[in-house]
Design goal:
The structure is a single chain. The chain is mainly alpha-helical. It has one domain (about 5-125). It has helices at about 5-15, 25-35, 55-70, 85-100, 120, and strands at about 50-55, 75-80, 80-85, 125. The strands form two sheets. Strands 1-4 form a two-stranded antiparallel sheet. Strands 2-3 form a two-stranded antiparallel ribbon. A hairpin with a 2-residue loop joins strand 2 and strand 3 (about 80-85). Helix 1 packs across helix 3 (about 55-70). The N and C termini lie close together (about 5 Å).
Length: about 130
């Protein structure tokens, strides 16, 4: 999986184009923050490190950003119509919980050269 593919995956996993949107810089930051030790034990930014990311951790962080954007919004009732903006925050926090629960804590998985869906569902992928 390339960095471009990871960006597309994060855009989808975080519904980045849906309100409240995540900017390309925010998507890039959550991917960068999800850098992990590679399959050879090298730490991110070490010489020879193979880019490896925990996409579930990145998605949880992306949803945290969206939840923060919802947090300041209030529910509105006007002309008999009700808009529950707090539901957006609640839903975003549920997505944080879901992705945080899927994170791989101590094992490393590589999908380099693989065409399966492990990158989406296993958590850690090499890019």
């Amino acid at each position: 999986m390339t960095l471009g593919e990871a960006t597309i995956e994060m855009t989808s996993m975080c519904a980045a184009e849906e309100f409240p949107q995540l900017s390309p810089d925010e998507i890039s930051r959550v991917i960068s923050n999800a850098s992990r030790r590679d399959e050879y034990g090298l730490l991110p930014y070490s010489s020879g490190w193979t880019p490896t990311y925990d996409l579930d951790a990145a998605a949880a962080d992306g949803w945290r950003i969206k939840a923060a954007k919802w947090a300041g919004r209030i529910d509105i009732s006007e002309s008999g119509e009700r808009m529950s903006r707090s539901q957006g925050h609640k839903m975003a926090m549920e997505m944080v919980k879901m992705y945080a629960g899927r994170r791989v804590s101590s094992s490393s998985m590589s999908t380099a050269g693989s065409s399966d869906y492990c990158g989406t569902f296993c958590g850690i992928v090499n890019i």
